[in-house]
Amino acid sequence: MNKHFDVIVIGGGASGMMAAGRAAERGRQVLLLEKNKELGKKLAITGGSRCNICNNEEDEHLLLQYFCSAEKFLYSSFSQFGLTETKEFFTSHDLPLVVEANKRVFPASKKASDVVAVMEKYVRSGGVEILTNATVKKIVVDGEKITGVRVGNEILTAESFIIATGGKSHPETGSTGDGFSWLKELGCKVVKPTPSVVPLAVQDDWIKMLAGVSFDHVKVTFFVEGRKQLAVQGRVLCTHFGISGPLILNTASKVADMLLDGVVTATIDVFPGMDLGALDKHITKIFDDNKNRDLKNVMKLIAPTGTASAILMLLPRFDVEKKVHSISKQERKTIVNLLKDLPLTITGLMGNDRAVVSDGGISISEIDGKTMRSRKYENLYITGDLLHINRPSGGFSLQLCWTTGWVAGDYA
Length: 412
Ligand SMILES: Cc1cc2nc3c(=O)[nH]c(=O)nc-3n(C[C@H](O)[C@H](O)[C@H](O)COP(=O)(O)OP(=O)(O)OC[C@H]3O[C@@H](n4cnc5c(N)ncnc54)[C@H](O)[C@@H]3O)c2cc1C
Fold this sequence. Notes:
CATH topology of the largest domain: FAD/NAD(P)-binding domain
Structural class: alpha+beta
Shape: elongated
CATH class of the largest domain: Alpha Beta
Largest sheet: 7 strands, mixed
Number of helices: 15
Low-confidence stretches: 352-356
Mean pLDDT: 92
Bound molecules: flavin-adenine dinucleotide
């Protein structure tokens, strides 16, 4: 094998493949190094193996706002390869796309493996030399230039280097944070990942109305795309943005994973110790004892302290002034069912950033936003999850990979 290349890309994930393919398209002689035996191992499990390729927010200004404080930094790279170019790229590589709820874009086949296949074909057809089972152990530096990488006992050299080794989540896919260590050793500013123990943001107004109130002992069940994932019991504190308390904080990292797989909803069961029948009996008795009182007042005897009016908000068609003796059996059942299943839609993790993907990485102040080139090392480019850029779930992470990968490949 030739040991000197125009460009060496380390990491055959989403951003590395895009970078290698683009550099080869420009006629560069490219080597792609991947430590796994196959390319795109993480890409293959994205979006519950359906791969949420990008987010169809067509207003670029609004799209960039999802990247929080990196909005301005990303403006130039997105103007070179943004949403439109991403969609064109995949459709022109025979991968029809569909847009689902919340503007999430998927391959029409609903198979992440098809996205991996497109990327692999892009890389191979461009003539990129691919070395799998090739773990880079060291980056070799001479002054302000990277001169080579060590794989096994060999030093492979190139004019430019693109590090695309990803973050630290799901290390079984190969993303073990090697890039973070190298960049630190190279003297670059690397932001530590923030803890995943954070409150959850929800979209529902009824819970925000309860800010400061807690449900002392409830069961919270989480669902991804309607499929049950996890149930936990304990105290839930309501806040201005969603839910918190130790129970929720300790569940956050699992919820973060769920958010990567689709829309996450949850239900709160206010009476976890009673089944529907027992709760119906309990409420019937309270109604019988308070026949001539208004529903809104009787609800205060049923619902946990301070929560009755917010819960009644979830029954907009109910006349809350109505005397409980005129509540029909069907209406009572609706109340019973609601108290067992108060609905929530989880929009993300709270924290400094509200990101669902673990953040941390090289500080963007050290990167030129037009090219993804390091400001410290003139022939070093950084892409994808290695960048310290916060974003929510919904296709934004992979969009970041397509954009930064393409731009790095275009300049390297
Ligand atoms: C379960 C899950 C589901 C997700 N779903 C979505 C989704 O639907 N939509 C979305 O936008 N985002 C999603 N994401 C986030 C998205 O997968 C990542 O943002 C993206 O894969 C990052 O790509 P990357 O190129 O930066 O790195 P990675 O995809 O992590 O690739 C890095 C590659 O570098 C290789 N590597 C690492 N160290 C070395 C080394 N020393 N030598 C050689 N090779 C090395 C690794 O083996 C790996 O293949 C999901 C993430 C997870 C964990």
